Amino acid sequence: MTIQLLNCTSEAQPFEAGLDSRRFEVLFGQNQTACFSGENGIELQVKIPVLGEAYRECIFSKPGQIYQKFGFDLIEAEDYLVGAIAKEAEFPLEKITYEVYLDFLELVKDWNLHRVWHYVPFINQETDRLENYKSFCKARSLAFEAFYGEGFDGELPAASAVGINDNRLVMYFIAGKRRGAHLENPEQISAYKYPQQYGPRSPSFARGTVLSRKGKRIGYLSGTASIKSHESVTLSDITDQLYTTLDNMSLVFERMGLVYERQSYSGLMPDPAKHDRMFKVYIKRAEDADQVQDLFAKIIGATEEDHIIYLQSDICRSELDIEIEAIISER
To answer: Of 136, 185, 240, 314, which sees the most CB atoms within 10 A?
Structure first.
């Protein structure tokens, strides 16, 4: 099978140009959710509506070996392992998530996790009186505990989990030989320490992961929303949610060393003149898209070199209307 992959541009991921490069791309707005691999790379198609022009996310492009293991399509390079799975869902999600995660942790046991993405089927719906997201979180946490023991918190990388209205559990990741620093937001309780009102087991992720590659920082920002301490806030208006979300983003970027003088308007986001910036903005209601796009682009000082994907998706908390993630790398 030959996959026709376009050139990756504007990404802040492991990337080397060349005919021998193997590329991993995610395409949103597709009619199906499925993962395909061929001689030149991996293509993950995701059935999530696109709200802007950009629909393609370039995750990786380096020389490497393509293979399959535990149901994952993988590319292994000298210093990176990337891969994806799109698994037919079974409800409740706990059993299938636990099994997939145990296989995943075995797969990456000799690597350091940098970033994990999840698209959870019908994330806010309930099965057997438990929300699908909470069922997913329970299984993920139990899998980490089974693999690493009770003190697994230090192994948790940047991650995100938003909804997909499709009967597929989607997961993809970046791991590497270098160990990154997993960071938290000083104005939020760590997700893995949330009180039990958010489910039988807490979400298992760090707010961000930062590492150095060739002397330059790469920061992976987890899915970030309008949450302070552990509570959802500023819920009455999506504009207020956006401002709170951006404030949380800037706090983590500051911890990563990618933002300075955070209190100034221009200091909220990493400088576009000094960084490659990729953002994914998840918006719950399509009618909010124009307002969010205009305001977000203005606040971050968006340039033509930024890569921003806007998607329509349910958020892990049903009361929230927006979530944003990012990959930032120093030039």
So the answer is: 136
Which is more confident, 13 or 240? 240
Angle between helices 132-148 and 94-107 in degrees, nearest 10: 40
HSE (side-chain half, CA atoms, 13 Å) at 265? 4
Closest by alpha carbon to 19, among 1, 36, 5, 37? Answer: 5
Q: Do 300 and 278 meet the contact criterion of CB atoms below 8 Å apart?
A: no
Q: List the domains of the chain with CATH numbers.
A: 21-330 (3.30.1330.40)
Report whether 47 contacts 59 (CB < 8 A).
Answer: no
**Each residue's pLDDT tens digit, 141-157:** 999 999 999 999 999 99
DSSP 253-283: HHHHTS--STTSGGGSS--TTTEEEEEEEEE
For residue 282, give the amino acid letter: Y
Look up the pTM and report it: 0.95
For residues 73 and 42, the answer to whether their CB atoms sit within 8 Å is: yes
Across the strands, what pairs with 87?
A: 169
Q: Which two tokens stand for residue 101?
A: 């995660």
